[in-house]
Design a protein that fits this description.
- With 69 residues, the protein is an all-alpha fold.
- It has one domain: lambda repressor-like DNA-binding domains (434 Repressor (Amino-terminal Domain)), CATH 1.10.260.40.
- 70% of the residues lie in helices and 0% in strands.
- It has 5 helices and no strands.
- It has helices spanning 5-15, 20-27, 31-38, 45-55, 59-68.
- The protein is globular.
């Protein structure tokens, strides 16, 4: 598996022009926790769902596809 979902979330956040503060509000967590998410190759499924809802990107399917390869 060569995908790092945390890095992908961070890249999508940047591509959408959103701040880490905005993202932390969407996930109801601290900015520090967001940076921990960005550094986690496979975040917890609840985190993936919240990020997916906030950013409109299907991280769960992305993870599934990378596992099936």
């Amino acid at each position: 598996m060569d995908i790092h979902i945390g890095h992908q979330i961070q890249a999508d956040l940047k591509a959408q022009g959103r701040s880490v503060t905005w993202f932390s509000r969407q996930l109801c967590c601290s900015r520090q926790n967001c940076y921990k998410i960005f550094n986690t190759p496979i975040p917890h499924i609840a985190t993936l769902y919240a990020a997916q809802k906030a950013l409109g990107v299907d991280y769960i399917s992305m993870l599934k596809e990378s596992i099936e390869m």
